[in-house]
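Quick question, first post here. What does this chain look like in 3D?
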Amino acid sequence: MVTVAYGSAAVLPALARDLAAQSSPADAWWVVDNSPQSAPLNPDLLTTATASGLSIRLIHGAEGAGFAAGCNRALDLLAAEHWDGWVWLLNPDTGLPVGDELACLRAQLQQLPAQALVGTAVADGAGGYEANGGWFSAGLSFRGRRLDPRAALQDETAAPLALDWLSGCSLALRPAAQPIAARFDERFPLYYEDMDLCRRLAHQGAPVLWLRQPLIVHRKGSGSVAPGPRRLQLSTLSYLRFLRRYSPGWVVALRSLRLLLLSLLRLPLRPQCSLAVLQAMLTVLREPA
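> Answer (accepted):
Ran it through. Tokens below.
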């Protein structure tokens, strides 16, 4: 299991307790600390999991490196140690409250192709479910066809659901089984890196599958801390780079124009956020197509 943390000290102990209580423990839990300077993780936060016998490795990442870079760092280290098994990527603000989630996932992975990218159902912690997957389209709503998890969960006996993309919040993959390096593209600093990975590996024949069980909980918004303008700048970079890579030119043009107009309209009221978006747009505009 791999978790990328950035200022996540408030939520990691809860995940550590859940992992310690699993009926089938993980082989190891690797936590990549992407805030080693601003908010370094104290290993004592994970003592509950350590006391249960779970092997924990705290990896020092680069300050503010992002989800993609953090995952890649862990995946590179696993490859150097010749790890041939599955890797479950879990956000720091996720929970495994029942206690058999890992055993359930293991049982299902044994029945799936080794090349598969596998996502799990995710509850939002407020009585609902996250639409953490979907299908792509060539039009303006390029990711508008989202999974309806409530409807999908009604049929517990159904086969895994084939999608085009999955969220990195809860994503399992077996890197050694992929025909190309199963690494995230670090040019997507915030969001869209998971969609991009699904598209690239699917192009090489990897099934993209969503499982109804196990059901994990996502305490959304409490997994990392970053200033609003900075988050907007990074997410805008990812958004525009994804559009340029996968969408028709007219879609890129219309969505970019809409983003520009909204930023200019909001400039008097939210100057820092608007300038962050405009700076990201200028950065992408200067990049080669």
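The domain at 2-218 is CATH 3.90.550.60 (Spore Coat Polysaccharide Biosynthesis Protein SpsA; Chain A).
The CA atoms of residues 111 and 170 lie 19 Å apart.
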